[in-house]
Amino acid sequence: MLYTIGLQYLPVTTYTLICASQLGFNAVFSYFLNRQKFTPYIVNSLVLLTISSVLLVFQTDPGDSNKTTKNKYVIGFICTLAASAGYALMLSLTQLAFHKVIKKETLRAVIDMTIYQSVVATGIIVIGLFASGEWRTLNREMEEYKLGKVSYVMNLLWTAISWQAFSVGCVGLIFKVSSLFSNVISILGLPVAPVLAVIFLHDKLTGLKAVAMLLAMWGFVSYMYQHYLDDLKMKEKRRSSEEGVSEVALVTDRG
């Protein structure tokens, strides 16, 4: 819901770049909840992604001033930032639940976790929908949809399907690797989204947004490089272990 408010009040490029801050939040939560180790590259990623998001609150794009007021822009910024923090916390808690509560390495564990999260989220949204009275306007919303009723239904249908596929993949990555890695993969399309918004939605890419996007890309690459180094270290340990086992087997055979 917070993401929806942010998207309502912010341009797509601004909204997308602020969402990059969830990686920074995830790094902090992973450190305290999942014992994630900080390295210079991860810290660099955290700082760059935070700066890229903070820069956007100072942007004064004249093209956006006609669509939203400064107060609404700040509300959208805060809601999107809060949503990013909440999503990052959910990922870290999911990893903690896998390690401390479920303790099963099966596909069913991944599906169960996805279902539990979806049921809770659906329940909260339904309560909010009826409590606010917005359920009365659903029919009018479908009637006034510019592309027609069929497009409205198909949009909802494929959004739900794609989101469930994303959820299964996201939880699966948390299960197999870590919440931080899952978050990195989930924002893989971050540098592409602002460009697509400019091309298809005619959104304006200001100089400040371009700088923020470059910083976000830099932060993403920094984390991926750290993952690359960790992978090399893991392969080196595995190779050393295999060589040690081979030497022990050779000595045993000689004896």
TrEMBL record:
TM annotation in the entry: 12-34, 41-58, 73-98, 110-132, 152-175, 180-201, 207-225
Gene Ontology terms, MF aspect: purine nucleobase transmembrane transporter activity; purine nucleoside transmembrane transporter activity
Taxonomic superkingdom: Eukaryota
InterPro entries per UniProt: EmrE-like, PUP_plant
Protein location: Membrane
Membrane topology recorded in Swiss-Prot or TrEMBL: Multi-pass membrane protein
Keyword annotations of the record: Membrane, Transmembrane, Transmembrane helix, Transport
UniProt GO cellular component terms: membrane
Main localization category: membrane
Record family assignment: Belongs to the purine permeases (TC 2.A.7.14) family.
Protein name per Swiss-Prot or TrEMBL: Purine permease 21
Record organism: Sesamum radiatum
Species lineage: Eukaryota, Viridiplantae, Streptophyta, Embryophyta, Tracheophyta
